[in-house]
Structure formats: C-alpha cells, structure tokens
Write a structure and sequence with these properties.
Length: 675
Amino acid sequence: MSKEAEGADNQSATRWKEEEYFYPAKEFTAQANLNDQAVLAGFSLEKFPDYYAGFADMLTWYKPWQKVFDASDAPLWKWFTGGELNASFNCIDRHLPHLANKTAIHFAPEPEGEKIEHITYQELFVKVNEFAALLRDTAKLKRGDRVAIHMPMVAELPIAMLACARLGLIHTVVFGGFSSSACADRVIDSGSRVLITIDAYYRSGKLIDHKVIDDEACQLAAAGGQKVETMLVWQRFAGKYSSAAPPVAGRDIVVGDELKKYYGARVEPEKMRSEDPLFLMYTSGTTGKPKGCQHGTGGYMAYVTAMSGMILDIHPEDCYWCTADIGWITGHSFIVYGPLALGGSTVIYEGVPTYPDAGRNWRIAQDLGVTIFHTAPTAIRSLRKVGPDEPKKYQFKFKLMATVGEPIEPEVWRWFEREIGKGQAVIVDTYWQTETGGFLCSTVPGIAPMKPGSAGPGVPGIHPAIFDEEGNVLPPGAEKAGNICIRNPWPGCMQTVWGDRDRFVANYFGRYNTKRDSKDWRDWPYMTGDGAIQTADGYFRILGRIDDVINVSGHRLGTKEIESAAMMVPEIAEAAVVAVAHEIKGSEPELYVSLKPGVSPSPEIEKKVADAIVFQIGKIAKCRKIWIVPDMPKTRSGKIMRRVLGAISNKGDVGNTSTLANPEIVTEIQNMVSK
Ligand code: PRX
C-alpha cells in the first residue's frame, strides 16, 4: 500500500474481501434508459471528446454549440463553446408543451399533519418567473452577479436557484445547517450583495428560527468587507412571519408580501454562453479556507442530465427521491438540475429521516409511490440500527436505489438490497465529488452487475486510473492502492476555483502534470485526492481521502478548518484533528489541543473550543471529544504527527515512535485517552 493511501481516512472502507456479483432484474433492464452494451464502445478514450456531443444533445439550446471541447486555456477546459442556453429554461419551460400538469416537485413538510405539496411544471414556471421578477427589480442585479442562498430543504430553495439561473445570476447555496460565520465566509468570498433566506423551518419536530442566523451572517460579512444590501426572506407559513428577528428596514424584503406585486410576471430567460458560470459550491480542502467550486452552464447541465438518465435511470414517469440536502452538490445535481432537466418528479423532504420515527421515510415512499431512492450509507446504517423492521411494514417498491458520499460496507449494502430494495431494486454506488459535478464511477444499472463495496468502473465517458507516487499508472487487478485520477476531462467538472485559478491548477493537476504549458488534455490527469484499488474486472473500490479531509456522514470537513476554528480560542497553542471510526457516520472528528505556556487545562477551555467550532462552521463539525494534551507528538522538524494521534483515537497500533522528537508523550496521551 502506498504511503498516501495509508494515511487515508479509510477506517470504514478498505479491508473487506472481494464480493460476489449481483445482477439487475430483467424487469429493470427491459425499461432502462441505457441497456445496450454496444453503446459503451462509443465511450472509448480514442473517441474523446466527441462522445460528449450526445450529452449536449439532451439539452435545448438557443444557439447551437460549435465545438465540443476547447483546450486553449488548459486545464480550464471549455465545453460546447459557441452555444447558448439557459438552465432554468431547460428545467422548466421546455417541458411545458407536454408535461405542464405533471408534478415537478413534491414537497413533504416535516410535520405529518401538514399536507404534501405537489408543484406541477406549470406552477413551478409561474413561481420561478414571479420570484425572478422580484429578484431582478428589488435587488438590482445584473448577469454574472453572485447571490447567496442560505436555506433549508423547502421548495422555495430550488425556486430561488432556478430564478437566479433564469436571470443569469450565479447562485451560491450555503447548506442550511451552516453557522452564521460559515455563511458570512461564503458571502464574502463570492462577493454576494444579496442573501436569500427563510424565516424558519422544521427539524426534529422543532420550528427553528433561521432568519436570526442570517442577521448575524450579514453583520459578520459586513465586518469582513462585504455588505449584504438586500436580504430576501421567504416565509415558512404564507402570510405569517415566524422569526424572532424582525425584518431590517431598508435591507430586508419579506418575499410573500412583495410577491403579490408580481402576480403574472414573466421573465425571459437570459441566453447564457455555455461556459458562463451557473453556480458556486464551496467545499473543504487542504487549507483552512473552503474553496468555491465554479460550475459552468452548458457542460454541467449536459453532464448531470446525462447522468440522471444513464445511471439514476430517471424517466418522466418516475417519482425520484434523493434524501441529500440541496445545500450540497448531490442536491444541486441530483435533486434539482438533473432530474428536472429530464422532466422527472423530484421529492424534497424538509426534515430528518427518523422523525417522528424510523418509518417516516417509508411512509413518504409509500404515499408518493417513489420508484427511485437515492441516499447515503450513513442514512442506511442509521435506519438499519434504529428501525430494521420498518421497511417491511410499508408498501413501496423501488426499481433503483443509489448511494453516494462514502464507501458502503458490503454487509450494509446487502441489508439495503434485501430490506429496502426488497430484493428487487438495482443499486448504484456512485463515487464523485463536489468538484466533479456528477458521477465518476458507478455501474450502469441496466448493463453491469453490482458488487457490494465497490463503486464500479468509470461511468461512460470517464476513464479513471490509479496512479502511484511516481505518476505511473497501475494496471487493473494490481490490487495495489494508489491515487485515483481521471485521465480525460469531462463536461461536469468544475471550471476553476472562484477567483483562484492557481489554487485550482495546483490542487487538482499540480501533482501529475509535468508540462505546465501543454494544451494537450492527456498531460492533465485530474487528481481526485482519494485512495483507491482497481480489481481485475475494472471496478474501483474507494479507500478514502489522501489529504486532510474527513468524511463525516458523507460530508466533507477540512481538518484545517476545524483546527483553525480551535485556534481562535486565545488559550490554544496547537490543534490537530483526526478521524475516528464511527458505526453510523463512517467517521467522526476528534480534536487534540495543546495550551499556551502558563495556561492550565479546564472544562471551560474545552467548552470554548467546542463553541468556537460550532460558531465557525456549524454543528456538523462538532468533535466527539476534545483532548487537552500537554504536547503534541512531533517529528524532529516540529511537524505534528496526526497519524500517531489517529492511531491513539482509533485504539490502533501507533507504530514506531522512536524517531519522534518527544516519544514519551505518546504513552502519556494513550493513558489519557484509554481512561
Ligand atoms: O472521498 C470521496 C467520498 O466523498 C468525497 C467527496 O465529497 P463531497 O465533495 O462532499 O461530495 C460528496 C457527494 C458527491 C470523495 O472525494 N465519496 C463520495 N462518493 C463516494 C465516496 N467514497 C466512497 N464511495 C462513494 N460512492
């Protein structure tokens, strides 16, 4: 195993044995969007980039594109250049002639007493147009301006996104659970003058005041140099304001009141160039500051539409439910843009899957006749633990189930297949990232067999390879871990890091590109930052991150982000985060801190650190335990040995510590942790 992969956050993933194949049911294959093996030959690397023309053909263009792929500004690839389109038009308007009265969005509120709202394509058209008109007039925005959206899982979130897209504005959705500080960071970095929010929403039976967080976010953003001039506040209950934070005069607009003025308004979609940015999605990386992954219009839309068809097998008659949050990339690509571009019906559920009990998901699936269920291994582990007998009690039948975000243990996979899939559903384990816009590896459900614990080969068009430290490609079946890279560009890939081209190039291509001036895509393999193994059948098993990123419940947390939050506490001298294996979440962060000279450990300091993390990032980054240690294990050059701390936290073997500058500290910390 390579040095890199050894350091991976791979406690939950790696060491399972090779599994038997499972084959898709004939009934599924017969109806699948892609079931002809012969089609796959068209996706060989020799045929790159032309095979992506078929992806673009799934969209409706105002002006046809001239060139599939443009490498002139390598590695900032451009796709479908010369073409013009609008994402909102592709998700809504083009369906009106034949699907106007079909449900586009089913919104399931968390309280079961509230009715599920079914929004047809016609209704979505009306809502998006009216809100777009309001946004245009009140916020005085122009094409290319950024708009931050900090909202939970409500139907108004995709409405706001699609309204931005209609106007040619670049949205940056901030996960609803993020703190005011995390929201402010994104407002500042994206230079958003407008923030769209909601007064309140339900979570675990409680009506959470959300607007109050965004008032604070505005203050923090202003202190950081970015004034929010306009805040648009949706209401969870029409006509009723549900936040303790009143609208701020001159800045806030209560959408429900203002929208009345726009009754019947229609906004012509902006004709966007294919390479114009559609949105930014911030994600954690190796440095403390999250980076804004910039996704384009034509390439991204073509990619997510094709993937929603080929891999998720969405047909207009399906009821598709992805339980991710729209505040993450999965929600953007596979709740909103992909499914709607195909004229699908997509479910948005406001609350937590186990509220009020572990049968909640299955009641939604039963009531709506969900046919495709897309979720994360964490959710499956949790449902298996708290409600193993629940699925049996309800009548639902999925034709396909998808998992995303983390490796799934074969045992959990089999439970999912048997109990939730009822032995009939096909499963796709989709491996990809915020940066990649859509899938990298997965089986094609109507063609290839499934193998529990393996994501599968590259999806059609994607040619992954395992690179070793020296940049050699390991052959399939080498059974050696290395760094999984993608040899060819693809249209869904982010265009750049917002405002930081150098960071984009260095981060994703710096390692394996040897010719900095090359305009040949073959010189620019994309580095995912994950360790993986490829078996002889070409399937990839993902081992986890090779960098300083922790995967908690399928969400990415930068260790540096957590560490820098801890360092905000004046008493803290050093901080180091490690990932600890967790039964449900895959892993959890655990934090080690050392104190400045003269400061003594106390529960108060521990609490200060915990609070700082929740304030800077949000509850999602809460550490399982904060250990105040006398010193960190360090190399002679003064580098903190996170690997040793990780082994201590996971009760594993710390290995040879004799070369450390302070080996005695290892036993001291071990004694502390094992108490
Ligand atoms: O480590 C991989 C893991 O999640 C990372 C990407 O996280 P994020 O950008 O937040 O996107 C999550 C949703 C696409 C990857 O670098 N990951 C994602 N999917 C899988 C996975 N690990 C194993 N198997 C997967 N199917």
